[in-house]
Every structure is written in C-alpha cells, then in structure tokens.
Amino acid sequence: MQKMDHSVRIEIFRFGLLAAALTISGKPSLLWVLAAFAIYRIMRSDFAQRAGKTLKRDLKGLYLLVRIKLEIKKRLAANRPVHEIWLERVNEHPQKEAAVEIETGRRISYRELNELMNKYANFFSSQGYKYGDVVALFMENNIEFIAAWFGLSKIGVVSAFINTNLKLEPLGHSINVSKCKCVITMSTLLPMLDSTKKEGVIANNMKVYLCDGEVPTAENLKKSLVTASENEPPNCPELNFQSVLCYIYTSGTTGFPKPSVIKHCRFYWAACSSSEGFGVKKEDVLYITMPFYHSAASMLGVGTIISKGTSIVIRKKFSASNFWKIRTMYGNGLRREIWVEFTTRFGIKRVGELYGATEGISNLANLDNHVGSCGFFPIYPFTSLFYPVRLVKVDEETGEIIRNKKGLAVPCQPGESGEMVGIINNKDVFRRFDGYVDKGDTEKKIYRDVFQKGDMCFASGDVLHWDELGYLYFKDRKGDTFRWKGENVSTIEVEGILQPIKSIVVCTVYGVEVGKQEGRAGMTALQMEDGADLKELLSEAAQRFTANLASYAIPIFIRICKEVEKTGSYKLKKTDLQKAGFDLSKGMDNPFRADLFRLGALVAVLSIVNRKSWWIVLAAFALYRLMRTDFARRARKTLKRDITGIMLLIRIKRELNKRIKANQPSHEMWMERVRENPLKEAAVEVETGRSITFRDMNQLMNKYANYFKGLGYKHGDVVALFMENNIDFLAIWLGLSKIGVVSAFINTNLKLEPLAHSINVSKSKCIITTTTLLPTLDKAKAEGLVNKDMKAFVNSGDVDTAENLEENMKGTNGDEPQKCKDLDFTSVLCYIYTSGTTGFPKPAVIKHCRYSLAITAAVEAFGIKIEDRIYITMPFYHSAASILGAGALVARGSTIVIRKKFSATNFWKDAIAHNCTCSQYIGEICRYLIAQKPTSEEKQHKIRTMYGNGLRREIWTEFTSRFGIERIVELYAATEGNSNTMNLDNHVGSCGFMPIYPFMWAFSPLRLLKIDEETGQLIRDKNGLAIPCNPGETGEMVGVINNKDLMQRFDGYVGKEETNKKIYRDVFKKGDQVFASGDVLHWDELGYLYFKDRKGDTYRWKGENVSTIEVEGILQPIKSIVECTVYGVEVPKQEGRAGMTALQMVDGEDLEELLADAAKRFTANLASYAIPIFIRICKEVDKTGTYKLRKTELQKAGYDLAKVDNDPVYIFNSSERKYVPLTAALQKQIDSGEYTRI
C-alpha cells in the first residue's frame, strides 16, 4: 500500500474534528459549527493567505481612490476649469514661491505667476485668439512655459506641447496635425523652427513668438507682454471642467508623434492622483528635470502646484551631479535589480513606480514601495468594480487578444501575464478615453466586445505580469516593436534591411532579455541558402546594418538556424526563438547526452582492460576530449599557417642576427648584390626606356655620394627628395646613405604649407627635385614658406631656379666614397612621412636596421627570387614602393621595373613587355584594374604574386581569378611602427594573423586592445591596465616595445612630442610601453585579422592617410563658418573612406560663396586625395559634454540623403573644381558604382 500524502492526512483529521463537533453539539448549533468551519477553511486557504498579505495595501488603495473620486466629483459638480482651482492656490498663499529656474536663478511667487499668466491671456485675446484655438509651445523647461500654458487656458486656447528634440518633418507634422495658429518658442530652438519653415514643412506665414529675445523671423513676445494687463481676463462662457486643456504627444503608428487630448478634468485627475498617491504636501518642493512636453513633468510635476500648492524647482535639463536631498521619487523604469541599491545609497524613503499612458485610462502606481512593481490589482474580484484596469490574455506569437467561444476576451488570473487594458466609460471621468486629435488614431487604440458585447477598452499595447499577491510588473511592448537603449525599434524595419541579401532564405527579428539591461536587445534569426558563405553573409549584414540603422537598432545577436519555423498562416514563429534568446544551452543539440555516452564508453573500456593500462586509456580519452574542443578544432585549421609563420620568423631573425653582428649599414647589403651580378639589369624606367645594371647603378650612387661630399655634406645632414619615380631617386637616396646623409622623402602631391612643413620639419639642407615639380617648390618659396636661400637641385634639365645635377656631376668620380666612421647598422637611413596629429605630415625615422628588417621580411614572406622582376607603380616617397618594392633590389638582387605613375590601361601591357613576375597594389589599383574592359593581355602576363594592402574581400576572388594571380599577400603595416603582419596563406580578406594560442605570443609583438567606440580611448581595468581582446573581438592594434629587440623597437619620429603621442604606457604591466597604431582591426576565431577602420583624426582614401585636422584647418579662415568637422565615410565599391565635411554656417551668409571659397582653398592647399568629396550643411554640429565634436552619428549618416535630416549635401566635381548639389539620382549612381569620378 502506498504511503498516504501528508496533505490528505491533514484533511482527514480536519473532517474528523468537524464530525466530532457536530456529534456533541445540538441541532440549533449545527449552523454555527458549519459556519465556523467554513470561515476557518477560507482563512486557511492560499487565497486568504495572499489577501492577508496585501490587505493593508488594498485598503490604502481603496481609501486613496475614494478620496480622489470625492474630490473629482466635487469639481465635476462645480464644472469649473482648472485655472479656477489654480486661483484657489493663489488666494491661499499669494506670496509663496511657486517656481524657481535653476540655471537662471529666476524666482516667482504664486501672485506674480498668476499675473504673468494673465498677461499671456490678455495679450493673445487682444490678438484675436479665442476658445478652441490651438497654440504650439515649442519651449524648453522654464517659467514662461507654465505661464503661457495656463494663461492661454484662461481664454479657452489649447496648448500643444511640442517635443524640443524634433526637427523638420516630425516637427512640422506635430504643429500641423494639431492645427496650430501660431508657435511660441525661444531663441535656442528658433533656428530649428526656421529650417522647418524654409523646407516648406510648415506654412511660411505662420506666426512665431519669441519669449526671450528679438529676431527678424519672430515677434518679441517679452516686449509685447510689457503693456498687457495683469488683471484676470473676462470669463469664457464655453469653458468648463470638460473642455480641452492641452495636447500632449505620444509615439504614432505613422512614425510621427500623435497629439492625445488632455481635458481639464483629466489633467486635474492625474495631478490629484499623483499628489495624493505619493504623499505630496503643500510644503514640499518638487524638483522637475523631465521635459515639460512630457506628461510626467507637465501633469504629474507641474500639476502639484494646482492640486496641492507646492513649490517647483525647474531644471532645463537633467544633471546627475546636482540632484540630491530628496525623500520621494516617482516615475517609471526603475529596474528591480538596482531598486534596493538605489534607495539605500541615496536615502530615498519612497519610490512611486508608475504604470501609465498619457492618453489612456490604464494607469497604476506602486503605493507601498514593493520592489520592482509598477502598481497592483487587488486579487479579490469584487474590487474590480472600483478599478477600470484589467489584464487580458494575448497570443504570444501574434500579439492578438485570445477570445473564448463567445468572442469575448479571456481575463488573466494572478500569476499570469497579459496585455493591460482600461475599460472605457465616457460618463465616468476615471474611465473616459478622450483619444487623439485624429479619429483614426483613436480607433486604433480601442478594443471592442472585450468583457461583454458592445463594450470598449483602451488598448495599451503593453504586456504586464500579475503576480499572486496582485503586484504588477512591466514585461514588454506588444507587436512588432521592442525597446532598447530607451528607444522603440521596429522589427519590420530591421528585417527590411536584410531583404536584399540573396543568401538569406528567411529571417526574423525580435527582442531578447539581457541580464542587468533595460529593455530588450535586438536579435536576428535567419536561415541561409545551402552552400552560402557564412562569413560573407555576416560581413554584408554588419555593413548594411551600420549603414542604414541607428546604433540602438542594430541587432546585437544573430542566430543561424537550420530552419526558421512558421505558423500555419506562414507567419514566422518568434516565441521559442525569444525564449531561447542568446543562451547557447537552449535550442541546440543536447550536449549532455553526448557526454553521458562518452563517459559510458570510457567506463566500458576501463572495465575490459588491465588496471595497469588504465593510465593509457585515460590519457587517450583526455587527448580525445582535448582534440574535440572548439579550441583544438580552430588550432588544427590554422596549424599549417602558424608553422609557416614561425619558420618565416626564424629565417628573418637568423638573417638579422647576422647583420646585427656585422653592424654594417644597409648599403653594404646592396654591395653584396652588385658583386654577385654586376651586369644584371637592376632597374628600368617604363616611360623613358632607360635601363641600368647593378654595376652602373652603384657607380651612379657613388657619383651622387662624392658630389655632395665635395659640397660639404656629412653624416647626419638631411637632403629632401621631392621627386617622381625614377632611377635617380634610388641612386641619390642610397648614394647619399654611403656618406651618412639622410634622405627625407617628400610627398609629390604636397603644395604650399604642407610641402614647406615637410621640408622644414626635417631640417633639410637642400632639396633635390625634378623639372616638373620645381614650379610647386618655387611657389612655396615665393610665398615665404620655404627659405628662399635654400639650395635646390634638379636631377636633369636646365632651369633658372635650381642647379642641374646631371651637368654638375659630369666630372665626378664613380668610385666608392670613403667609409663614414660614424655609420653603422643603427644609423638613420631616411625619413618617410606619415600623417600627423598636427595636421601636417610627420617624418618617421627609418634606420638602416629597420630598413634591413623590412626588406628581408618582405622578400622572404613574398617568396621573391633573384630572377623575379618587380613592377612598381606606387610612388617612391611611400614605404610600400621604396622599402617593400625597391627593397627586393637590395635584399635579393631582383630587377625592378619603374613606372612614374600607375596606369590601369597599361598595367598588363607593361607587365608583359618587361616580363614582370611580381607587383604591388593598393585597393584602388585592384578596383581600377577590375573596372577595365577585359583584354587579352590580362591573361598573358607572368605576374604570379601581388602584395600590398586594401584589397577588399568583396572583389578578392574576382581579382585573382580574372587576372590569374596565384598569390595575394595582403599586409597590415605602419611605416614607423612595430605592429606589422601579413596574410601568408591567401585567406580572403585577411591582412594578417595572430596565433590563437597564447604561448606563441612570445614570438610576436602584436596585440589587440579593447577600446571605447565613442572616444577611441583604451578601456582599462580596475588596476589601470589595458584589456586585451580575445579571438572574435575587435580592438586597436598595438606593438609591444622592446628597444633591445630589433623586431620590437620603435624609433619614432623626428619630433619627440610626436613620438610620445604614439606610445601607450602601463598597458600589460606597470612601466611597459606599446606602439599605438591608431588602427582598429577585427581578430576572428581562427586568428585572422581584418582591417576595420582608422581611429581618431585620420582616415584612408586613395591609398593615402588623410588628416582631418589638416583639412579642417584649411576652412578655419572662412568667417561664414560657425563650426566644421571632417571625417571619412564609406562609399560602396570603394576602398577606404571618402572625405566629408559637415559645417554650420553663420545665419544670413551666402552658401554659394562659401562653397566656392571652400573649393578654392581645398584645391590650392590639398593633394587631390585629401579634398573632401562631400560637404553637408548642418543646422548645428553636435558636440560632446566636453565640447569635442561628435562625428559618430555624422559618419553613420554619411552622404545618404535619407539620413541627413534634410540637410543639403554637395559633391565635389573634380573637372569643374567646384561643389554641386548631390541629388537622389546621383547618389544612386554613386552607390551602384556607375559614377566613377570620385
């Protein structure tokens, strides 16, 4: 026999006692016994226990409701508007302080505030405003807002509270939909209003009053009120307690705000409820930081001066640092996770958490400080007579109300969740729903036939949970939106962004809960086509999200499903997906069963083998489990790559150690090549056909060395090379290095100030240039930017302002110059310029040892052989050409083929004509080549390897397959830095790798560190140290500095200040240093690195770094610009980022003149790649709290006309050298790649 349940035994015992009592009592007492037993049983029930716990709360709520109802009934009987109640407060304490403005210190008494209200009423009455007219209040928090609102109400004029964050169409819609006759605003908001008028969104002749100043586009209301009467205006006969007081806007289904109707009775009911419910007394001082256009501030905050006669303290905008000494706080959104910490830390005795809708009737409040609750329903049904609110069950999938067989809604029971509704009874002020100005919007918020046929309920759209004690907890928004970072996100909008991705079969977007975060984070579940590339899909999704969505709307998680389940009506099922969220243990294969099977197999094996062999079995099992881990799986995939990297590193280190031991300058390595093959062709110029052997090249180098030595140039002197690509560039550079003279490589695109800075900062003694570049140099001299007495040479040709080196060196000896005693492996070889934080190029110091390291690493990694011919189209002033390109000449003895300037039409022709086997690229070169029409030459060439940086993964495969390139070596490198890596295994899109196993980090100085996306600063832990990234994360690339190790040293720049700016200290341990690259890279789970962006004040375009500070500096003298900022924006099918300038103009200035002036200054001072492609004319350039310009949102919007808030955008027409309007048609051509003149 089974053991009897304890609860059953208790029931049997109770009935036994009842039977005993009945047997010993007389018949007259039977009724009393049964009644007593029934009461006993009821009081012992779970319901009674719960009711006992909440009785005090429920009685308090009932008593509060009665008090409020009695007050409202009294006012209904009097049928007087709200300002009559206000006059009662004025008469009670006319001298009491009614309000004070924190920012201005302005204070006003009840009597003075009433007189100011009367001024508003009488002035607007004199202007013809009457009962039923609407006036828009587009104002920040101040006393004038209150005075205008209640003053206008005295003459029956309705105030429409306009959100001060709105611009253009949303702003215009808010004013137009409420049929406003005029707008009252203030000077800080007037420009926004004027822009809306200018765009034709609101009528140009709409009257505008300015409450705090005088401007041509608005009437000075402050001045007009001076003469207005302070006496009470005549009573408006139509005005009563049921009249409309104001419109307060809520979010609309059309995407625009919709005005909800607030009548005098509703306002006073809300004000009474809040002051009574939260225990507000007339001696209280209420601190208001919420905006007045929000009902929380205007009704629940300002309302207390009318309902209770309190004082209010007004702050224009919330400030966390100026807040405390408060006993009660009320509002909504305080999460239960921080509730106790908040109240304890700040000494808040009472929190009045609310649930309410501005326009609705389903409003509640937390009366007893119950943690996390936003209100309550009593759990006993009879109290529903007093409350108009209910919870009804909804279908979790569709969000529709669940109805029974009679077609009525199914109410929730305690312990269940559902949608909050309010029962509508327009005869009861507590249950009336006045709706919105637009009847269509009103109808959308009404459910019909809910609890009985013919009834109506207000549909809140909010899902709440009703616990067993009757407490309510806000759970979620219903339908196709979720809330994240304080904003509503439309799932339909996000899903629409993914529609064009052809590799997606189906997708759905939903919100998921994240621990200790408000709202729900976005998550996308999608099903891929079979065989589609996941990485490409994720990359495209990320690109489309960041280009089209605000940051808060970008899905945080993506789940790749085998199948996205649908309902019978083919709607996507989200319920199970939402429940699983991002929890890896849900919705996946059950790993627990697999583990049980493995353990079972292990036990079985152990049971049949000898005990002495157990350690072998256990070791094998441990190895098996280790090899089955995700880490081992990833390690296996990258083992070959990593071993290749280690072997390469060993070969490079062995070569360098040999060079370090010899301690000879790099031209000694060159001499080895000359001795090996003196008659071999060293270099050839494509345009001129000039060719030179190793021996002849060396003799030319010696001539330059001996000539300048004869002029007195010595070790440590600097000579500027301002030359195009040619043989003489190399001969001068390496020739001068033999006598210890440093060459400074000057960018041939520079003009005027940037050119002069580059020459002057390097302290060059003279300049060597060409006849084509001499005029640019002469102009800089003429402007006084370069010393007119500085000696200038041209490599050949007779000119007036420079000496002809070819002519001067005719008698110069070609023998080796005398060895320089001070010259060794650590001496400075040259300066190569990078973009500078000052806005001008800064010279990076390249020592002989660094040069030797770079060229050795290049030829080893790229697999360059002595018989190879390297085709160089990049400029020699760039390290890619001078070090990685021409370096093959010195390190391997290969031949280099030099083109002065890249030509897409001649690229393959040149490669064939000169038998080239290797070449360089930047991303733009690859794109230009793909854009050419197919030719026979592109398949006949012998180029097998190309190396460089910037080849986009989108065209990588197309490029290699179309042109038959066997190997692409994508690089990540900094001219001056030690954080360099490369793609060794043709992995598409990657610019290098970092091994995923930590023990290999000892071989490389590379690290990725986490950074703050907004500020770009390193994120540091509690010890002040940086936080390294893990595989799968994104961060800033750094190189660990160890000046004793050649591969980890950082020689920096000519200027010590510039050097120090590129060093982070106390990174991995106190006292250490790392090189700060300023580049953000992504490190995937296999260890591959992908360049993501430039951090800070530079961006990359046309293969060049552009300094935003330099470009911004060009615009500084233009007085019609208030503020400007420069940044890079992504352009589809283009490498890097195109320059864009956002600027704010001085009011009244001529736009065409500004654009012409900007174009003129840009073309005169900047290289072509640095000229901004786009200009956006903003109403205001947003700044951070520390007055730094915000570029994040501007960059996200880019040049997309749909995202620039109707700001005009202009594009640079390079052929006409002027800015022209960007049209939607032109933007479409740019996005599709049809427009090629960028």
TrEMBL record:
Entries under Pfam families matching the protein: AMP-binding, AMP-binding_C
Any one Gene Ontology molecular-function term assigned to this protein's record: long-chain fatty acid-CoA ligase activity
Residue intervals passing through the bilayer: 12-40
Keyword Cell membrane on entry: no
Catalysed reaction, written as an equation: tetracosanoate + ATP + CoA = tetracosanoyl-CoA + AMP + diphosphate; a very long-chain fatty acid + ATP + CoA = a very long-chain fatty acyl-CoA + AMP + diphosphate
InterPro entries in the cross-refs: AMP-bd_C, AMP-bd_C_sf, AMP-binding_CS, AMP-dep_synth/lig_dom, ANL_N_sf
Gene3D superfamilies in alphabetical order: 3.30.300.30, N-terminal domain of ligase-like
Record keywords: ATP-binding, Ligase, Membrane, Nucleotide-binding, Transmembrane, Transmembrane helix
Occurrences of domain AMP-dependent synthetase/ligase (ranges): 88-320, 672-1037
GO biological process, one term: long-chain fatty acid import into cell
Keyword Transmembrane appears in the UniProt entry: yes
One CC-aspect GO term: endoplasmic reticulum membrane
Signal peptide: none
Superkingdom: Eukaryota
Annotated AMP-binding enzyme C-terminal domain residues: 1110-1188
Family: Belongs to the ATP-dependent AMP-binding enzyme family.
Family matches, as NCBIfam families: PRK08279.1 (NF006134)
Record-given protein name: Long-chain-fatty-acid--CoA ligase
Source species: Pristionchus pacificus (Parasitic nematode worm)
